[in-house]
Every structure is written in structure tokens, then in C-alpha cells.
Amino acid sequence: MARRYAAIRERIARAARRAGRDADAVRVVAVTKYVGVDGVAAALAAGLRDFGENRVQDARPKVERFGREARWHFIGQLQTNKVRYLKDLYFLVHSVDRPRLAEALSNAAPPGRPQAVLLQVNVGREPQKGGVAPEELFDLLRFAAGLPGIRVEGLMAIPPAVADPEAARPYFRMLRELAERAREASGLPLPELSMGMSGDFEVAVEEGATIVRIGRALFVDP
Ligand SMILES: *Cc1c(COP(=O)(O)O)cnc(C)c1O
After folding, report:
1. Which among 142, 129, 130, 135 is positioned nearest to 99, based on CA atoms?
2. What is the Cα–Cα distance from 31 to 94, expressed in whole angstroms?
3. pLDDT per residue as tens digits for the range 138-178
4. What is the pTM of this model?
5. In the chain, N or C: fewer CB atoms in 10 Å?
6. What are the beta bridge partners of residue 84?
7. How far is the CA of 22 from the centre of ligand 1 (A)?
């Protein structure tokens, strides 16, 4: 695990250098949906501190066991009626894609402690995927920014699955450009861009990712 993580950090460092970026500005979220509590323990021992889960129920034993040592990221599609199970255990919710969900998260947050969120954009317009349509992002941002119980930190996307990571580049670029326009329109800093997974994270880093979400390359690949 430590070796795999070191190899991933090295690939991120090289991609950042190619783009003239600082590799320390890229956070690795270890996606633990493939492993149980032992996998999380191994990743913690290897120095990882950020963990991502896409199902509330599967995440629960891990979040309860390692809640204090780790920062948990919720990265999956979220039903409004499941929001209460998140409690205030998550550092960042990546997948806000509609006003009702933003409102439910805002209502569930403890007073004075807004939930940090990203707005997910469906950059490939894939019907089976979550995310707001690109042209609806600005309305969603305006609405979400007005809610007292959430704080919008940036954008997230899951581009269409492609064999060649280069084919994902236009989608990463689209997300970066949407974030630039959203900053101008809203005046918010929106510093975070969550994009890039095991197959394409180097291209995402070249295009400005500040968070990459990596599962298979850490936990599954030989
Ligand atoms: C599973 C998952 C990942 C990790 O994908 P890998 O290809 O295993 O690195 C990233 N983001 C989301 C939203 C996921 O569901």
C-alpha cells in the first residue's frame, strides 16, 4: 500500500510539473468502496488521510471506526432521505446536483457548522450519472450559495468512461472552465476541482484537479 501510494504521488508530481503546478495542491482521496475496515487501516498506515465512499450504508462501519483519524468524503449519488445518515461526519460532500439536495444538507447541518460541498456537473450528459447539466450549474450555485447550512467549495465531475485517458481531457477542461466562470459570476473563491480517477488522474492534474479520487490503483490493481 505504501509503495502504491508513493508511486501515485510520484505520478501526480510529474503531471503537476508538466503543467507548472504545485503537487502539494493536489489531495488524494482514497476510494475505499472496494475494501473493508482492514483496507482503511492499511491506507492510514501508509499515510493517507482522505477517504471517499459512495454509499452511506457501506461507509458507516468505516466512518464510525476511523472517524477521528480520517477525513471522509461522500462521492456517490445521494438521495435526499439519506442525508440525515451523514450526520456531521463528512469533511466534504462531492455530489450536490439539485436544489432539494442542497436544501436537505443545509437543513441537516448543526447550527454554525455549515457542511462543505462541491457541485457535481454531468459533463458528458450521461443519463445514468448524477450531476447538474452544465447550463444549469449557475442557477444551482446561486441557490446553494444562499443557504446558511452549506458552503460551496468547488466543482466535481465523473467524465464518461474512455479507454484512452487523453479522451477525458476535454471534460476536465470543461469543468475547469465552468469553475472559472462560476467564480466570476458568484464572487466565491470555489478553490476545489474534484476530478480524475485511477485511469486518468494525471490528465486531470494537468487540467487543474485539486482532488483526485483513486480506488483501483490503490486497492485493486496488481
Ligand atoms: C469508485 C469511484 C472512484 C474511484 O474510481 P477508480 O477507478 O477505482 O479509481 C472515483 N469517484 C467515484 C465517484 C467513484 O464512485
Report:
1. 142
2. 13
3. 999 999 999 999 999 999 999 999 999 999 999 999 999 99
4. 0.97
5. C
6. none
7. 24
| Other C-beta atoms lying within 10 Å of the C-beta of residue 129 | 16
Where on the phi/psi map is residue 146: left (φ > 0), alpha (ψ -120 to 50), or beta?
alpha
Give me ligand 1 centre to Cα 215, in Å.
6
What proportions of the chain, in percent to the nearest 5, are helix, strand and coil?
Answer: 45, 20, 35
Q: How far is the CA of 213 from the centre of ligand 1 (A)?
A: 6
Q: Which ligand 1 atom is at minimum distance from the Cα of 94? A: 13
- Please enumerate in sequence order all residues whose Cβ is within 8 A of that of 138, keeping only pairs 6 or more positions apart, or say none: 181, 182, 185
What pLDDT shows up at residue 222?
A: 75
Q: Is 215 in the pocket of ligand 1 (CB under 6 A)?
A: yes
β-partners of residue 121 are 132
Cell of 140: 444551482
**Mean pLDDT taken over the chain:** 96
Q: Which atom of ligand 1 is nearest to the CA of 220?
A: 8
Q: What is the mean pLDDT of residues 77-81?
A: 96
Nearest alpha-carbon partner for 156 in 52, 84, 39, 22 = 52
Tell me, using a 6 A CB cutoff, whether residue 216 lines ligand 1: yes
